[in-house]
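Incident log, support desk, overnight shift.

02:14 A customer reports that sequence design results differ from what the structure should imply. Their input is reproduced verbatim below. On-call engineer (initials T.W.) acknowledged and began investigating.
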């Protein structure tokens, strides 16, 4: 009976290092070859959730970038470029083996008009819509103030609506003047003016008064001036 034996090959450290370097060199060559030989392709836009106007505006930003290569495309740079559009809430840029470099965008959803030429989303972000036809939508509340005050204005809107909702009314126009005076007009036509001193307390107290002591006269009130330390002034409808 013949016995066979296998001989184990043992590489010396310098041989192992040489093999590793060789593999790295081959891998690097293959990567360089793929990068050099790949064909540039247009960036693909996923049109879901975008209007035709938004899609067109996005294409105008992407077109100057030209074709991009699958492996060497700078995804972060593409994302940052698209994020400069104020109406864009979020951007996703990814590589897809079948389509190439793919861009998906989520557009901001307006909850209010901000001035006459911009909109405000639920996060209090002021932005210019891709479609100017969205401006001054009569279904939205109208807010006015400085850009840096948008969060404050949004918070005030929510608070006032909550206090006055039991009266069956909601804010239609809300203005914060440069002197920090609030001008509020409700959907029933009633207007309120209040200054920056104890603003919330004055508005809350008025809401209580309109539900109790002034309940019978509520429909007759044209405007209320709360810019007084003790009390307020009422102008009646004619």
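02:41 Re-run completed on a clean worker. Output:
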């Amino acid at each position: 009976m013949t016995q066979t034996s296998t001989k184990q090959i043992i590489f010396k450290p310098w041989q192992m290092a040489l093999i590793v370097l060789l593999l790295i060199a081959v891998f690097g060559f293959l990567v360089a070859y793929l990068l050099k030989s790949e064909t540039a392709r247009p960036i693909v836009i996923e049109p879901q959730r975008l209007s035709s106007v938004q899609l067109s505006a996005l294409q105008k930003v992407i077109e100057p970038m030209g074709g991009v290569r699958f492996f060497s495309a700078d995804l972060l740079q593409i994302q940052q470029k698209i994020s400069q559009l104020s109406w864009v809430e979020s951007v996703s840029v990814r590589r897809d083996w079948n389509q190439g470099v793919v861009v998906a965008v989520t557009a901001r959803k307006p909850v209010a008009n901000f001035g006459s030429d911009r909109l405000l989303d639920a996060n209090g972000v002021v932005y210019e819509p891709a479609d100017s036809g969205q401006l001054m939508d009569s279904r939205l509340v109208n807010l006015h103030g400085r850009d840096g005050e948008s969060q404050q204005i949004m918070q005030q809107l929510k608070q006032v609506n909550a206090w006055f909702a039991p009266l069956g009314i909601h804010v239609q126009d809300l203005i914060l003047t440069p002197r920090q005076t609030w001008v509020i007009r409700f959907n029933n036509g009633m207007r309120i003016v209040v200054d920056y001193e104890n603003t919330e307390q004055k508005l809350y107290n008025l809401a209580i008064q309109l539900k109790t002591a002034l309940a019978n006269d509520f429909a007759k009130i044209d405007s209320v001036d709360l810019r007084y330390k003790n009390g307020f002034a009422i102008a009646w409808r004619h």
